[in-house]
Amino acid sequence: MTLTSRLVLYTAHICPFAHRVEAALLQAGAKFEKVEIDLEKKPEWYPQINPASKVPALVIDKDNHQKDISKIPENGVSINESLVLLELVADLYPDAHLLPHGLVNAVNRAKVRLFIEAGGYFNSQYFAWLFRGESSTNILQAIDALQAHLPETGFLLGDNKPTIGDLAFAPFFVRFKDFAENAKEDVCDIAGARSVLETLKTEKYQKFNRYVTDLLDLPSVKSTTPSPELNVEKFTKKIKIMRESVA
C-alpha cells in the first residue's frame, strides 16, 4: 500500500481501545475517515468489517475508490486489535517517531513495548476496580510500575515526541480520572479512587503527575477524549448491566 490509500477507522468515541488508534493517526498527521459504531446497537453489516464485531478496525483501500463503508473493498484489507494498529500506524508514518526505527533504536523500541506491558497491567487493575469492585490500591501499584519507566522530562523516551506507548496508556488513565472525579460514590469504590488521585499529587508521584498532565494535554489525545459526563454515563450503564447479568 501507499500513503495515498484511503484509510477508514471504525471506532466508538467511548472506547479506550479505539481512542488509542485515533489519537495515533492524528499524532502522525494521517488523513483518514472515521465511522462511528454504536456499541449498543451495532450495524448488521459490521461483522463484514471485523468478524469479532469489536472496535477499532482500520480498513485500507489500496485503490482509493471504494466508498461503501459496509464492506471491505476488493483490493482492500481490514486490520483490527488496537496494539497491532498502533504499530501499523507507526510503520506507515515513520516521520512521526511513534516507534523508533532502525537498529540504533532497538533498545528504545523495547522500552516502548515494556511500557505498553506496564500499561496493560494498569488497564487490568482499572477494569477490576470499575467492574468487579476490587481495591483501588492495586491501581496505585500499577502506577508505581509505570512511573519506574518514566524519564525526568518529556514523554516516554525523554523528548517531546509521544510514542505509541504513551498513546496506548492515555485513554485508560483519562477515563479512570474522569470517572473517579465525576461518578456518584455508590457506583463503585469512588472514595478509594479519589484517594489515589490525591496521592498522585504528592512528591513521590511528581514525575508521573508531570508526565500524565502533559500527555492528556496533547491535542491528539485531548481532542479525541469523550467528555467526563459521557464517560460516566456510559460506564455507569455498563456497570449496571454487568452486575445484573451475574445477579
TrEMBL record:
Name of protein: Glutathione S-transferase omega-1
This protein's record includes keyword ATP-binding: no
Pfam families cross-referenced by the UniProt entry: GST_C_2, GST_N_3
Molecular function, one GO term: transferase activity
This protein's GO CC annotations: cytoplasm
Species whose genome carries this gene: Wallemia ichthyophaga (strain EXF-994 / CBS 113033)
KW Ion transport (keyword) present: no
Span of domain GST N-terminal: 5-97
UniProt keywords, alphabetically: Transferase
